Amino acid sequence: MRDIAVFSGSAHPELAAEICAQLGAALNPVRIQRFANDCLEVQLQANCREHDVFLIQPIVPPVQEHLVELFLMLDAARGASAARTTVVMPHYAYARSDKKDAPRISIGGRLMADLLTTAGANRVLAMTLHSPQVHGFFSVPVDQLHALRELAAHFQGRDLSNTVVVSPDLGNAKPASAFARMLGVPVAAGAKQRFADDKVTITAIIGAVEGRDIIVLDDEIAKGSTLIELMERLRERDARSISIACTHGLFADDALRRLGDQPDVEEIVCTNTVPLANGTTHPKLTVLSVAPLLAEAIRRIHNGESVSALFHDA
What we know:
The protein contains 9 helices and 15 strands. The protein is of the alpha/beta class. The longest helix is centred in the N-terminal third of the chain and has 17 residues, at about 65-80.
């Protein structure tokens, strides 16, 4: 990989190292220091002049710290005469702020996209953005990957003759349908209303789930409130067993334990787009790596090849 320079912020250095191992490229060092007045300073400690620069930084808690790190890395790359700078953002936390659903609030997903471009991003490589409109918030090219193939491969090879994929809400029904097609099983969806960040109501499930083995597919699990509510409705409909699959396993506020301790939950599967908090583990949890997928996308972007083949059926 000639004329490429890969750097990582502090959000998920393990994923960055795995991506670079797949690429056969060095993960260059970054110096991040904090001044006495709490300001950050970032130095990219490798040559960027006329290089294709990739900055790996999922936007995960502490979100504001990691965003500012990324802004400063982008500005440093631009000041170092990088030929092109691509933000590799496996998780975009502000994607959930994607609409104005109350008076006098900011659409944070669009604002942060504008700030990334202002800071120097020429391109963005993301994974499973929260909703379709988030892609359009960016004024630079965005390649959005999906982890559906990796999640489907985990379940393929099992007896799926009695399985149904269930989306927690109608907004996630399209990826759930694509996931179900990969597995060759039917799909169902919940009818959800959200009243607060941790208060949701699922009034009905559209589709046949009685006596079935359920795979619940969601893009992100934070507090797990939606899934707890969904499982209550599935039990009312006499579902036989439940597995949970998602791309971004944030597992805030002890969500992993609360979900894993449900007796009818057989497995929780997520990817490593975000780091698991220290001590976050459960015997029912399986973490799949998306490093090979991200590495292949980076290779294609660098070589000017099509990225669409990596996600065209998702």
